[in-house]
Amino acid sequence: MLKLIYTDESFRLERLTQSVETWIRDRAVLALRTTQNFYLEPSSAAFLVLKDLPLLAELVEIKGDCDDILDIAVCDAEYSEVSLKGHWVTNDEGDCSGTFICKLGDRPELLLEKVWQASQNSAPVREE
Q1: What's the pLDDT score for residue 25?
Q2: DSSP 5-58
Q3: In whole angstroms, how far apart are CA 118 and each of 61, 65, 77, 112, 124?
Q4: Does an H or E element contain 97, and which?
Q5: pLDDT per position as a tens digit, 25-56
């Protein structure tokens, strides 16, 4: 399972061994025990990665195995956009901060995690 964490200042991708169902159940129980709101909806998420990474080409090759969940599109000269279908989990319906979860399968998830990490480590630093 992939877990994408969106906050006001950052984005992080993690690969977990739990099933989506188990993670959602545990998150709902946590919300119940801590008297927090719990909002879950089917959704999609997207993020940018450097398009010249060798692992991205490998991910594109196996994309057909999870074509209904994963899409990869070229954005510009430097970046490609990775889009995923899954579930959005947050405390309130209108929150922009929250967690997106989806299940692709072991190999695509591992490749996507490596692509994201390599993109983070290689991302050009822009001057403001």
Answers
A1: 96
A2: EE-SS-EEEEE-SS-HHHHHHHHHHHHHHTT---EEEEEEEEEEEETT-HHHHH
A3: 18, 22, 17, 10, 12
A4: none
A5: 999 999 999 999 999 999 999 999 998 888 88
What is the value of pTM for the model shown?
A: 0.86
The tokens for 84 are 């995923």
* 69-89 pLDDT tens trace: 999 999 898 999 999 999 999
Contacts of 24 (CB under 8 A, 6+ apart): 40, 87, 89, 101
Nearest-Å Rg of the Cα atoms of the chain is 15
Tokens in use for 82? 């990775």
Distance CA 61, CA 10 (A): 29
